[in-house]
Structures are given as structure tokens and as C-alpha cells.
Amino acid sequence: MLGAQAAAAEPLLVRAAEALRAGPSASGLIRERVLVSLAYVRAELGHVDEGIALLDEITAEPPLSGIVAGQRGLLLMRSGRAEEAVGPLDEAVRLLDEGLYERIQQQLNRGLLRLTRGELEPARSDFLTCVTLAERQDRPLLRLQARHNLGLISYLSGNLPQALRELDEVAEQLRDRPEFAYVIRVDRARVLYSAGLLEDADEELVRAIEDIGRGGRRQDLAEIDLTRAQVALAGGRAVQARRLARSAARRFARRGSRGWAVLAELTAIRAGLWIGDRRVADPDRVRELADHLQADGFVEDAAMARIVLVHCLLATGRTVPAGQETTSALRLRRGDQIVVRLARREARAAFAEATGDRGRAASERRAGLDELHRYQASFGSLDLQTAVAVHGRPLAAGGLDAALAAGRPAGVFAWAERTRALASRLPPVQPPEDPDAARALSRLRALRQELVAAQRSGADVPELRRETAELELLVRKRSWYLPGPGDVARPAGLGQAQAALEPGGTLVVHMVSGGAVHALVVTSRRSRLVRLGAAAPILERLKRVRGDLDALAVTGFPAAFRATVRSSLDAGLDALDADLWRPLIRTGGSGRNPAAGDGPVVLVPAGAFTAVPWTMLAGLRGRPVSVARSVTAWLAGRRGAVAGDGPGGVVAVSGPGLPRAEAEAGAVAALWPGARGLTGDRATGAAVLGALGGNRVVHVAAHGTHEVANPLFSSLLLADGPLFGYDVAVVPAAADHVVLSSCDLGRVTERPGDEVLGMTAALLRAGTASVLSSVARVGDEQAHDLTLAYHARLCRGEAPAVALAAVTQQQPAPFVCFGRAW
């Protein structure tokens, strides 16, 4: 019953209760049953104690006494008094016969109460009993509610792929019951939050508010505000998190939901600590909140409160000795959800640092990240693997900051590898055939083409956009159900990296810490740390350079305009060279003392810096450059030579709509003995996927699009529509080298942990050794000429990075080799 409905129902129920004082109605309705409903309405309108008082008036025998007990338990549970609700709900289940509809309702409520208290197996037993009773009584709606709650058991047990599958299956069957929409959205948002898909979680919560409407239940609206606050806090939006948490606290207080109000206040304090507002660091108040949550049955939240207490003690300089209350707060417990477990590890590390034990702090952070990595390995979806890293951000940042402060290259290298691009250390998972996903992708290809055609004609096609968005979500959801490999490769060590570098070769690992960019420069003989400067202005210069490159790729602009843009681009590239490369080769006081060698270069950039047009920087022009996701991934990759007598051949593909594409594909094929072309109607997605799996070199000349919001929907336009990153990521791509003669497909969307997603990342994830792609738009003529010159060198036996260095020395362009390209 929504808030507006409750307000309208209250006077009717009051009148009915008065009218029934003299006895039951002609239809058999008795006053006690009306009071049960009135109690619920009073509670929903913010008068929980009055609702319970109404129930206290009722004297009844079973089954009504069971219904009254169950209603009392429900009111207590919804107001956050979980501990008080245990007895009434146990009594309700005991008093109500298994053949009654109400028995299933109360067993559902008791299961939810047990979930709140962290009693997962008893809760599972309740829900399984509900499924059995609902089937016996032919109550399909209650059966679906129980199945939904079993999905929550999977979530709280840490099996997020299974939880998402179970929740979505129930949601599909309840799609014609809008009264359940907001409940499903809120629960799904909580699972997405645990998976690190914060934007998706917040979108579900916003839509849940729309489902409830303005006259919505105060309790539910407050819970949504609180969950949105927790999502915002995980995403680093602490100011927004505090505002939402305070809003939730006010709503809970007005309703009389004590336990929930306490939880909202705790979330606001956590947000304040994140911001650095030490006024909120009141250990006594946080201790009181923790006691309240424990007493009210919020077991997991009480644990988080005691973790926050440790941070408050540290913020006020009160480093209490180990063995007092911090021991209980920081003790690791089996069954902790991943978010709580990682928060406990970070608090243990902070406490160790405050007491001068830096070694212990580093050990705690390493252990926490290892736990996160094992958790990531439970996901088979690249989307989930990269998203969940957000929960390890405090541990990763703290460890890297400490390593940089210590200034030892080996320690910095270890932390950089431990904290970045974990997905590159997970073996790819081959999913089973999924006809639903295949049909959705097929329909999506057609819709994307219809949408482009409509946009070119200036037509407004909201229904087309809506269906496209729904299909994209369906494809993403289906990928989330895939279980993970379970195994995580160990990160590489500095010695391994040095041993792999040939004489004169250089490895540069870029890191961002405390708002500054640092570079670890490694050669076969030495390693050195260099602070490069503030990150924000460098990223702003990169943005302008990308804009200039995009503008120059467009034909038809006046010569004067192009000259101005060219001048701006040259200045921007020079500035980026000064920011990111020149400091590594500066002359020392006693003569030339370069940190970097003069041979080939491996770059491992911090996320956003992946999009730098590295081959266009003056200091790197003419040098073989490979850009890798991590050093571990680079070392694990196959070497990038592509010519010779290896298995497989060469395939050149052309997509529609590019005037030079077919000629380019033909010219590339002509350079390689025995090469074949896929052009015209033969250049389908299936044909290209087949080529990626069985050939040494695949060249694709086609329109490319990078999707910033959903990077695995980045695409290549082929004869039968777009080929998506989702297509590529799940098909083994054994090609030694892929050339993407397309715009933008070297671009990435950055996620925490220097995880990056896009078409190039999908190809590397699928097993491609190296990829040539552009980090900006490129003119058709420039791409045609450059890639032909590039292939002419490849087919003579040059490694990709070597060939690109030679070509771009004469024809500068934003093409970059990704993977192990030398």
C-alpha cells in the first residue's frame, strides 16, 4: 500500500472499526481484522508505536492470533527493530497452519528478517518452504516472491552472477505486476552496487522512485535514499552521499524507524570522513550508533559502524592500544560481505600506520586486494570483472601512496602491478551458447543501422532509441550471469620485467597518486622514479590534443582554419611530450644521465593516459612503442612478430560506407602471399569473428565507434551491421595481430584500478597478441596510406611496433600498437 493509498484508507478503516464494535458484518468481517489493517496503515503513515498499540488491543485465538503476531513482527521489522521482531514472527509461523495463505506471507517475512540478521541458511530454509507451500496452494505470486528472496541469498553468499540471474528471471515473470517493480529494482540495485556497477545501480534506484510515485511509502523512499547514498559514497561522490543520507535520516525519523535512522546517520558520518570533515569524527556517537545497530539486529551494519569508529579514533588522534575495542572491530570474520571485508582490511592498515607499523599496513592492503582479486575471479563477465575494482580503491590508493612515499622502485612496481588491470590476469571464460543473447545482438545490429539512418534524416525516433537501450541492457545482463574462472595469475615482479627488456629497451609505468602523475622508468640495468607533475592539467592538454586530431580528420574545412588547428595540435603534442617523456631523458649535472634507454619502449599508462597519441610525441617518434594494460599482461602475451611460416594466413576486411575501404583491403591482401579478402556482402560479423580465431593477421577497414558509457558496445560497422566488443570478448581470437583501420577504437573507458574497456581491450582480452588502432579520428586517405606502408613492412618480417615507428616517423598519426608488439 503506497503512502497516498494509506492516507485515503485510514479514515475508512477507522469508520469500519467503529461500526464493527457491536459485532461482525453480514459478510463475516470482524473488527479485529480491520484493526490489523489499520495498524499497518498507521505505521506506514509514520506512527509505528500507535500501530503496535492497536495490535495490542486484539485478543484472539488461532489463526487470527498468528496473523496479529505476524503483523506486529512486520511493523517492527520495517521500522528497523529487527531484534524485537524475532519473537512475533516465530510465533506467527508456529500458529498459522500450512494450508493458510497467511502462513506463506509470515514465513516470507521471517525469512527476510533472518536475512537482515545475517542468518542465511535459516532464511534459505524459510524461502524454500514458501516455494513448496505456494506450489501446494497454487499461489504463483508468493512462489515468485520466495524465489526472488532466494536470489538475495545468492547475493549475500557472494555469488553475484547467480543472484543477478535469479532476480532477473523473477522480474521477467512479474513484469505485468507494477506494484512489485520498485522492490525488484531496489534489491537489484543492491546487487549491482556490490558488483561495482554503480551507475547501473543508481539508475535502478532512480527508476524505483518513479515506480513508487510521489505518494510513495515513506519507509521505501527513505531506504532508496540511503542506498543511493551508499552507491554515491562507493563512487567517491561523498558530498552527494552525505546529502542523500541526511535526507534518508529525516524520513526515517519522521516515520519512527529508529534502526534505519541510525544507519542513515552512520552513512552521513562516513561521507563526512571521506570529505575530510573532522567535525563528524565523534567516537562516542559512533560507538552509540554501533550499539543501536547491534541491538536492532543490523549485524553487518553494526560491523561497519565499528570500522568507522576506528577511523574516528584515528582522526581524533586517539590510537587506542590493540586489545581494546579495536580488536573486536578489526577482527576478520567469515561470512563478511566483500565491501565490509575490504573496509575492515583498510581500517586495519590505517591503524597499523598510525601506530608506526608500516610493514603491517602494507601486508593488510596486499591481503585485502588478494581477496578482491579472488572475488573478481568469480565473475566471467569482463564488464563485472572491471567494475568491481571500485571497492578496492582505498586499499589500492593507500598502498601505492605509501610505496611512492618510501621511494623504492621495486616496491612501487609491485604495488602498481598489484592494483591495476586485474582483468588482464584472469583467463578468459568461454561462455556456453546463449540463444537469447544471440537474438538480442542480431536485432540490435539492425536497430543500430535504423537509428543511424533516422538520425541522418533528422527524424525523432524515441521508440527506436528505447528498444535499442532495452536490448543493450539485455545483452549486458546476459553476460553478467557467466561464472568466472576462479584463478588469478600472480603479478609480475620487477626482476622479470627487467629480464624481458632487450638492451636499450625501456619500460615506463605511469601512476596517478595524490593528484600527481608519477613514472617508474625501468631498463634492463636500473629503475628510477620520476614525478611528472599534476594530473589535471596534463589530462586537459590531452583533451585539447584529441579535439584537434578529430578536427583535422574532417575534410572540407578552410585552409586557414586547418592551419590554426594544426598549430594548436603541434603545441599540444609538444606540451604532452614535455609532460610525459622529456623528464625521463633530462641531462644530469655531470652530463647526460637518461632514465630511459634509446631502444624500444613499453608503456603501461594509468587509465586515462592510454588515449595519448604516444607515437606522435617528439621524443618517441621513430621508436618502437607498445602500450600494455599491465606489465604482467605484456609478459604473458605472445611476441608480436607476425610474418614468417606460422600457422594461419592474412585476411583483409572492408566495411560499408567508406569510399576507400574496399580498395584498401584489396591493396593489403595483395601485399601478403595467399591473403584473402572479405569485402562486400561477405564481410559479415560471423566471417570476421571466424577470421580472428584462425589467422595470423586480420586487417579491418571500417567505420569504428567507441561507446563511452557502454564501452563493450564499441563497434565496427560490417555488411550485416555493427560487430560489438561483446561479440569479440567471448570468442577466442588467436590472431597474432589485428589492424583496426578505423576511428577511435584505440580509445577506452576508464574504470577504477586502471581497468579499461573498449574494442581494443576486448580483442586483447580474447587472446589477440597485439592490436594497431587509433586513439582519435583519422582521415580516410591518411589511414589508407599509412596502413599500406605499415603492411609493406609487416610482410617483410618487422614486428608491429617497429613497422609503425618507421611509418609514423614520416607520416605522424594517432595510431598506437597495443599488446606485445615488439
List the helices and strands and how they pair.
Blueprint: H1 3-19, H2 31-44, H3 48-56, H4 64-78, H5 82-95, H6 101-116, H7 120-137, H8 140-156, H9 160-173, H10 181-194, H11 198-212, H12 218-234, H13 238-255, H14 258-275, H15 283-295, H16 299-315, H17 325-330, H18 338-354, H19 358-376, H20 382-387, H21 393-406, H22 409-419, H23 435-456, H24 462-480, H25 494-500, E1 506-513, E2 516-522, E3 527-534, H26 535-552, H27 559-580, E4 587-588, E5 591-592, E6 601-604, E7 625-627, H28 631-636, E8 650-654, H29 661-671, E9 676-678, H30 685-694, E10 697-701, E11 704-705, E12 715-718, E13 721-724, H31 725-729, E14 737-741, E15 749-751, E16 755-757, H32 759-765, E17 770-774, H33 780-794, H34 800-810, E18 815-819
Parallel strand pairs: 1-6, 6-7, 7-18, 8-9, 8-10, 10-14, 14-17
Antiparallel strand pairs: 1-2, 2-3, 4-5, 11-12, 12-13, 15-16, 17-18
